[in-house]
Each structure stands twice: as structure tokens, then as C-alpha cells.
Design brief:
The chain is of the alpha/beta class. The chain is built from 7 helices and 10 strands. It has a domain of 67 residues. Helix 4 crosses helix 5. The radius of gyration is 18 Å and the shape is globular.
């Protein structure tokens, strides 16, 4: 790999949820092109890691850099700029239900500083085509299936050409066939564009079928899966 600088780096970092430390001494590096799963039982700190990466939760002790920003001393006014370098996909899609797909995406572009109408229209066409939804721009979210809504959410995450996509249980509300479609989409973006992906999941079948690095949260730690290690999860789907 030409550029070995990590996009995300945590060193001896404590991950907190509110005032409580949920993970102690985490080391993690994410490089361009990585596909990394964060797995573990309910309540082991997986989502707290995601919230720390996007600067929603403050960092406990240790150090962390994300997309060039130091989380130890990031200023409040810089957090929106940090988040523009990332695409975030949630389990429940988080689309604005009172406006069309096109207007959902326009809202995000305007909120992140885009002003040129032609450029916005062009970029929306590009990301919708990338997720196979180019004919759905004028649909309302309630007119789409769950899988289609998640594809739109992924398109939204691509708008600003992020360095990394962070997906928190993106297949959690989807049936197996639809979930596989979403995984094929995410792994395709990862391979074709070199966009790093960090994905929280409970679904053992997914991280066994679509190989990547696996970070395991348990006993107030988060460490990379060892070779041959069997991971104990609450849910096997």
C-alpha cells in the first residue's frame, strides 16, 4: 500500500459512554482499503466506539486521530468538518420521511457546504447510480422497501466521497437476502474505490461470509480476533 498512514488510529484509548468507561486501553488502526468488523455481545461498547470515532462521545485516556483530526483536542467547530470526511450508515436508515430521496440528499449536500445546483444534481445522480437506485430519486422513503431505504442511506454516506464508511448494524433490520445485497454493495465500494469500511454487526454469518479484519469487544477490551478464535455472541442469525 502506497500510503501507510492510518485513517483512524487509537492508542491505549479508553472508550466511554456518558461518564462510564466501557473499554480500556484500546489499540486500533484503520488504513485505506480496510474492511473491519466490530463484534461482541450487547453492551460491550461497540456503538460507543463508533460514537467516539465521530466525536459524539469524548475520548477517555489515551490518544486517537480520525481523518487527520486529533480527538483529544478537537474543537467543537471542527467536528462538522471531521464528519464530512466520513459516511455514516445506521440500522434504522434515518431518512427524512417528509421529503423525497432527491431532497434527502440535497439536504445533506447543502448542510455540508454545497451551493452549486448543477453540481449537486450531478453528484446525487452519481451516488444513486452507484447503489443501483438511479430510478428512485423522486420516491418518498415510505414508498421504498427496507433494503431500498438502506441503499439510499449508503448513497447519502457517499455524497462527500468519504475516506471511511462507518456502518452501525446496517443489516440489522433486513431479511437475509436483502442483507446480502447490502453487504455486496458495501464490499464492492470497499474494493472498487478503496474506501475503508468499519461495520458493527451481531451477524456471525456476515463476517464469516464476507471476510475482513474482526475486532472483538468483551470484558471491557476490544482486540483483533486471533487466528482460529471462536467468537461468543449473544445472537447468531
Amino acid at each position: 500500500m502506497e500510503d501507510n498512514t492510518p485513517i483512524i488510529s487509537f492508542k491505549d484509548a479508553d472508550i466511554v459512554n456518558g461518564e462510564a468507561t466501557v473499554i480500556y486501553g484500546m489499540d486500533m488502526e484503520i488504513h485505506p482499503g480496510d474492511f473491519v468488523y466490530i463484534v461482541g455481545k450487547v453492551g460491550t461498547g461497540k456503538t460507543s466506539i463508533i460514537r467516539t470515532i465521530i466525536a459524539e462521545n469524548h475520548l477517555g485516556k489515551g490518544s486517537a486521530t480520525v481523518c487527520g483530526y486529533n480527538l483529544r483536542d478537537i474543537r467543537e467547530k471542527d467536528i462538522p468538518y471531521l464528519r464530512r470526511k466520513m459516511g455514516v450508515v445506521f440500522q434504522d436508515f434515518q431518512l427524512l420521511m417528509d421529503r423525497s430521496v432527491q431532497d434527502n440528499l440535497i439536504f445533506v449536500l447543502k448542510a455540508t457546504g454545497w451551493k452549486d445546483t448543477e453540481a449537486m444534481t450531478r453528484r446525487i445522480s452519481e451516488v444513486l447510480k452507484a447503489v443501483g437506485m438511479e430510478l428512485k430519486a423522486h420516491k418518498m422513503p415510505h414508498q421504498l422497501s427496507g433494503g431500498e431505504q438502506q441503499r439510499i442511506a449508503i448513497a447519502r454516506s457517499l455524497l462527500n466521497d468519504p475516506q471511511v464508511i462507518i456502518a452501525d448494524e446496517p443489516t440489522g433490520n433486513l431479511d437475509t437476502e436483502t442483507a446480502e445485497g447490502i453487504m455486496n454493495l458495501l464490499t464492492g465500494i470497499n474494493k472498487e474505490k478503496g474506501t475503508a469500511v468499519i461495520m458493527v454487526t451481531h451477524n456471525r454469518q456476515i463476517f464469516e461470509k464476507y471476510p475482513g479484519r474482526v475486532m472483538v469487544c468483551r470484558d471491557e477490551t476490544c482486540c483483533e480476533q486471533e487466528s482460529g478464535e471462536v467468537i461468543d455472541l449473544d445472537i447468531t442469525i
